Amino acid sequence: MTLLTVCLIMLSGCGPSQKELAETAKTYRDTGNKSVIDRSSDVKVRASAVEKLTDQALLADVAQSSNYDYVCLRAAEKLTDQALLANVAKKGGSQNARLSAVDKLRDQALLADIARNNAVSSVRQRAVFKLEDQALLADIAKNDEDADVRAEAFDKLTNPAQSFLADIAINAQDALVRESPYAPSREAHIREKTVEKLTDQTLLAGVAKNAKNADVRIAALKRLTDQVTLADIAKNDKTSSVRRAAIEQLTDQTILYGIFKNKKVGDIRIAALKRLTDQATLADIAKNDDDWEVCYAAVEQLTDQATLVDIYKNANNPSVGGTAFRKLTDQAILADFAKNDQNDSVRLAAVRQLTDQATLADIAKNGQNDYARLDAIRKLTDQAILADIAKNDNDVSARFAAVEKLTDQAVLAYIVKNEGIGNRGLVRAAFDKLTDQAMLADFAKNGKSDSVRLAAVEKLTDQTVLADIAKNDKSEGIRRAAQQRLYQLK
Questions:
Q1: What is the CA radius of gyration of the chain?
Q2: Domain-by-domain residue ranges, the chain?
Q3: Residue 378 above 50 pLDDT?
C-alpha cells in the first residue's frame, strides 16, 4: 500500500486534528513520486485535507500559504469570516483565491480598502464591482492606474457630477494599446461613456476644445448646438478630422460661408461648401471660384434648374458644365435640349435623362438623330406607341427597339404573321417574346412556314394541343417535334 493510500485512509477517518489537517493541506508531498511535473497526488491529498477543515483561521492560513492554486481556492471558498476573507483577498496564495475572497466579502469598508490598495489590479476591479460608495468610486474612476479598474468604477457611478465628467473626458489617457483589433480599449470605453453622460453645453464646449484625445473632442462637439463654438473648433482645432466633424454640425449659413471664404482653411473649404444650401450663393461660387474642384462641389449642391442651365451654358470648365447638365431633371428643359440643341451628343444626353412619356414618344417618332430616337424608344412604356413604331416605322433598328419593349401579345403575333420575308430577324425577335399559348397553338398548326411552326411547338406547354399536333399534323417533322416536346414536359 502506498503512502498516498495510507494518507487517504487516515484522512477518511476521524483521527487527525484541525492543525494536522491544516499542516497536511499546506505541506504534504508524496515522497514516492519523483516527477517534478506530476504533482496530482499531492493536490488530491491536500484538497482532501481542506475539505475536512472547519477552523476559519486555519483555512485562511492555507489559502494564503499553499503553493497549489486549487488548494488555495478551495480553502478560500470555505471561509465566511469577513476579516479573514479580507486578509486572503490581500495576501492569498493565488489570484483565484483572492478573487474568491473578494466575491464573499460584504463589508464595504474592507472592500474599499482592497479597491484602493490591493497590488493586483484584477482584485481591485472585483472589489470595485461590489462597492457602493459613490465618492470613492469617483476617485477610483479618476485616479486608479489601471484602465479596467477605472472603467469598472465609472460604470458603477449612478449620477456623476457634470464637472467630474468633463474633467475625466478632458484628461482621459490615450489608449496606446488595444486588447484586440476588434474591441475598443477600456480607456476608450471610459471616454465614450463620459461624453454620453455630459449635457451641460458649457462643459461640452470645454471638452470639445481641450480634450487630449481627438475622438473625445469629436464626440463632445457632436453634442454641441452652439454655432459660434462649433465655428471656432472648425477653424482652429489642430486635427483635420475634428475640424471636419465640426463643419458637419454647423447649420448657420453665414458662418459656413465665412469659413468657406477663408482660403487659409483649405482642407475644410469644400466641407463647409457642402453644408451650404442657399442656391444663389452656390451659383455664384460655381460660376466664379477659381478652383474647379470648388466649382464642381458647388454644382453638386445646386438643385435650381435654371441656374444649372446657366452654369452648363457658361461654365469655364467643361467638367463643371457637364456636371450641371447631369443634374437637370426638369422635363421641359430636357425636352428642349433633346429636340433643339445643335450638338448631337447633347441631344442624346438629354434623352437619356428624360422620363416624360409624351416627350419621349415625340422624339421616338419624329427625332432627327437616330441614336436619340433609339434611346427614346427604349425608355417608352406606352404599348400603343411602341406597337405603332414596331409595325410602321421606316427604320428597322427603331422597329427592333420597339419590339424589345413590347409585351402586347396580339401586336407581337401581328408582326410575326404580317412581316415580310425580308425581315426575318424582326419576326424572330417578335416571336421570341410570344408566351400566349393559344397564339402559339395557332402558329404551330397554321404558321405560314415550317420554321415558324416548329418554333411554336418548341414553346408550347399545353399538352392537349401538343398531343393533337403529334397525332394529326400533316407534317411528319412537326409531329415528331410535338412528340419530343411532350417527352420533355413529362
A1: 43
A2: 1-105, 435-490
A3: yes
Half-sphere exposure of 389 (CA within 13 A, CB side): 32
In single-letter form, the type of residue at position 281 comes to T
Give the pTM. Answer: 0.57
User: Quick one: pLDDT at residue 191?
Assistant: 73
Beta bridge partners of 180: 183
Cell of 283: 451659383
Query: Would you say residue 263 has pLDDT above 80?
Result: no
Q: Do residues 191 and 213 touch, judged by C-beta distance below 8 A?
A: yes
- Cβ contacts of 231 within 8 Å, gap of 6 or more: 246, 250, 252, 255, 258, 259
Burial tier of 422 (Cβ tally within 10 Å: 0-12, 13-18, 19+): exposed
Quote the DSSP letter at residue 421: G
Task: Give the three-state DSSP class for 27.
Answer: helix
Q: Is 180 helix (H, G, I), strand (E, B) or coil?
A: strand
Residue whose C-alpha is closest to residue 170's, from 220, 135, 230? 220
Per-residue model confidence as pLDDT tens digits over 204-217: 999 999 988 898 89
> Which pLDDT tens digit goes with each residue over 148-168?
898 899 888 888 888 888 888
Q: Are 127 and 102 in contact (CB under 8 A)?
A: yes
Cα–Cα dist 160/146, whole Å: 20
57 SS3 class:
helix
Q: Is the pLDDT of residue 402 over 90?
A: yes
CA–CA gap between residue 82 and residue 88 (Å, rounded): 10
CB atoms within 10 A of CB 482: 27
Q: What span, in angstroms and rounded, lies between the C-alpha atoms of 193 and 207?
A: 14
Grid look-up 489642430 returns: 238
Residue 42: per-residue pLDDT? 82
Whether residue 394 contacts residue 385, with contact meaning beta carbons closer than 8 Å, is answered with no
